[in-house]
Amino acid sequence: MSARILFITGRLAEASLRRVLDGIESKDFTYEINQLGVSVAALITADMLKRRLKAVNHFDQILVPGLCAGNMDELTEYYGVDVKKGPVDLKDLPEYFGSPARRHSLQEYSVKIFAEIVDAPDLNIEQILQRATAYKEAGADVIDIGCLPQNPFPHLESSIQTLKAEGFETSVDSLNDQELLRGGRAGADYLLSLSEKSLWIADEVASTPILIPSDGSGNESLYAAIEIMAKKNRDFLADSILNPIHFGLTDSIVQYYELRKHYPEVPIMIGTGNVTELTDADTIGITAVLMGIASELEAAAILTTEVSGHACTAVAEADLARRMMHAAKSDSSLPRGYSDGLLALHEKKPYPSTADEIRELANQIRDPSFRIQVSQEGLHIFNRSGLFEATDPFDLYPHLAVEDDASHAFYLGVELARAQIAWQLRKRYLQDRILSWGCVTQPEAVGEEYDPVGTTKQLSMKRDKTAWFSKSSSLQRVAPATFISLPWEFNIKMIAF
Known about the structure:
It is a single chain. The protein has helices spanning 14-23, 46-52, 72-79, 93-98, 125-138, 156-165, 177-186, 200-204, 219-231, 249-262, 273-276, 283-296, 314-330, 355-362, 393-396, 406-425; strands at 3-9, 29-35, 61-64, 82-85, 112-117, 142-146, 169-173, 190-194, 208-211, 237-238, 269-271, 301-305, 371-375, 378-383, 386-390, 476-478. The protein is an alpha/beta fold. It folds into 3 domains: 3-99, Rossmann fold (3-Layer(aba) Sandwich); 112-330, TIM Barrel, CATH 3.20.20.20; 355-478, no CATH class. Strands 10-9-8-7-6-5-12-11 form an 8-stranded parallel beta sheet. It has a 4-stranded parallel beta sheet with strand order 2-1-3-4. Strands 13-14-15-16 form a 4-stranded antiparallel beta sheet. Helix 5 (125-138) crosses helix 6 (156-165), helix 6 packs parallel to helix 7 (177-186) and helix 12 (283-296) crosses helix 13. The longest helix is centred in the C-terminal third of the chain and has 20 residues, at 406-425. The two termini are 50 Å apart. The relative contact order is 0.11.
């Protein structure tokens, strides 16, 4: 039997919501819409719902707008029916009901992340602990203590012991046999890395070694090391070494493939830093592809670094990517629809409304509050006085009549700057919300269930001197036109100054 869902919305979005729901193919639910008697769905609160919505016994679920303020658990108890928030934008409802992401919490993963502190000898123990804590919060499972060839590391043992006392799994990464031996004796869980020539270290300590080929020998020497460790019944991981682009990347991927074919059950490690650090490209996409390769190879672990400034979120990116790949592999599916966290620069559906739809909405507005929306054509700002469109906020300012209202002018300046950035980068813009940059930034809490009704969040804003603004733009005074398909929330809040 299909579920019976009651959708809550406002007057202006009702017709658009009905069209979107009717357009969902192969629905496994029936529905009714309750227009709660407010113009804008974004203004609906839990208390308002209690006052205006009475008997709902014949429904299995109530779906309220994504920005509805209040406690959904309390509403569920009040009505005796499951109450949930839908997406912020009603045009995302087809994905909301059809996305595999709804079947996964992304809590599971199959690849461990080793995060290397590459300059550990130059840091004191407190700094190493701080770095380790940050990596763990970003998703790292093992803290890899990197050693530097020309730098003495007298506090190696105490660093390991301090991290272990704080509950961290640790590894030591060195080209020096004696440092590896010291690290193992101090209690490191893993040693990076041992070749066929240095396997004697594994006989001296209990640490799990990561095995690598001898210099320039390819997989042949790695296979020999694997056979030796297997005969000793010792745990290990095998790493064929991922090389940088134009220095053997493709060949090294082939070697990982051959390693897996030769040893179907051997746990494999892949070091991603040679590609993420040594390529001047955003690491988030590179990491996604490398984690996809790791998933296909059924790798047990990756080693990643955050040395270059452009690789400063590599651990968090790898954490989300491994979860997405695990979920997609479990579903025998493409890694799509599980999370938007790896879409930092662009979005799949940046413009929920067309310019004509926004113009039709503007024609319905009868109050002085400004609405700001973005379409493929540019920025749109409107209230009862009219609609103005441009691609440069500076062209809009003379028409807003806020010269004598500094707080309002500041607010509109911030919002229009965000809107222009969203338009330039083809990102989704929601008025009164910071732009989403995926997992590379801390997300703003959107529609928190326990946010006090009627409060305004105070967000810290970092100033960036980058020249975001394009000087080539056009401004038009527009007469509202055809019918609009509205976002569920209208992407706005009513702002009074």
